[in-house]
Amino acid sequence: MKKLHFLFGSRRTWAWPYVLFLVLFVVLPLLLIFVYAFTTPSGEFTIKNFVQFFETSEAVNTFIYSIAIALLTTVVCLLLGYPAAYIMASAEMKTPAVMAMLFILPMWINFLLRTLATVELFNIFGLPLGEGALIYGMCYDFLPFMIYPIYNTLQKMDRSLIEAAHDLGANKKQVFFKVILPLSKPGIYSGIIMVFMPTVSTFAISELLTHNKITLFGSLIQRAFGEGGLQMWNYGAALSLIMLIIIGLTSFFGNQDEQEAQSVI
Questions:
Q1: pLDDT tens for residues 229-244?
Q2: Which CATH number characterizes residue 136's domain?
Q3: What is the DSSP string of 52-119?
Q4: Which long-range contacts link 23-32 to residues 24+ away (Cβ below 8 Å)?
């Protein structure tokens, strides 16, 4: 009994499966990417993979274009998602639950199927597939990731602060910009990170909604690993590492801004 208690009664014991999962599926793949990025196909150390990226104008332009598309998608999702989250947080009775369910229902379907449905929708209405369809599809797929962090922040907001602002003579506009908006900044930062990170690295959505007419940075990585053969894996790893650095910096500065917002609040 003591041995069983020692094995299953300790919190450390229950943590080992998660540690093993992280090592096998997170740490080890990242180490492999790092090793492949700084080596040649024969295993020799090199930085030519990164030099090749910066010397290839097409790859650099694709990277910059992908960042621009991701930023535009994030801004559109913020402009659409904040009012929706604000309405959900302000509504009474069962309205927030109904609205939340309407946003959740599409997420039950695989995003590739949703993207294919978007392609068919554009075909039905005779709309061209291209940059507009790409932004529309990304906003459609990732809008809930903007809404729910903001909604959760607004829902947990202390309503007495709004009442105090009204008692001090603030009108609705002043209450929103000086009380509600600053209090919702943590949710905004979380939503921006949750939308920006997947959009900057996606490739399937762009390929389907543009018929491969528009290439994003994720598509370059996918082609390096999928179509280039083993000789291109090192270059693909270098591209992946560059993308990981961008995502890591985005997360770091986003968390810093979120912590500053929470400390001010």
A1: 667 889 999 999 998 8
A2: 1.10.3720.10
A3: HHHH-HHHHHHHHHHHHHHHHHHHHHHHHHHHHHHHHHH--TTHHHHHHHHHHGGGGS-HHHHHHHHH
A4: 30/244, 32/237
Question: How many angstroms separate the CA atoms of 249 and 97, rounded?
Answer: 35
Q: Is residue 7 part of a domain?
A: no
Instruction: Give tens-digit pLDDT for 110-119.
Output: 888 888 889 9
- In order of 53, 197, 220, 253, the CA distances from 260 in angstroms are 36, 21, 36, 11
Provide the number of structural domains found in the chain: 1
Is 110 part of any domain? Answer: yes
**Range(s) of the domain holding residue 176:** 57-229+240-264
Q: Which range has the worst mean pLDDT, 75-79, 89-93, 148-152, 188-192?
A: 89-93
What span, in angstroms and rounded, lies between the C-alpha atoms of 77 and 67?
A: 15
pLDDT at 96 over 70: no
Residue 174 resides in a domain: yes
pLDDT the model gives residue 108 = 81
Whether residue 95 lies inside any domain: the answer is yes
Q: Which amino acid is at 237?
A: A
3-state SS string over 163-229?
Answer: HHHHHCCCCHHHHHHHHHHHHCHHHHHHHHHHHHHHHHHCCHHHHHHHCCCCCCHHHHHHHHHHCCC
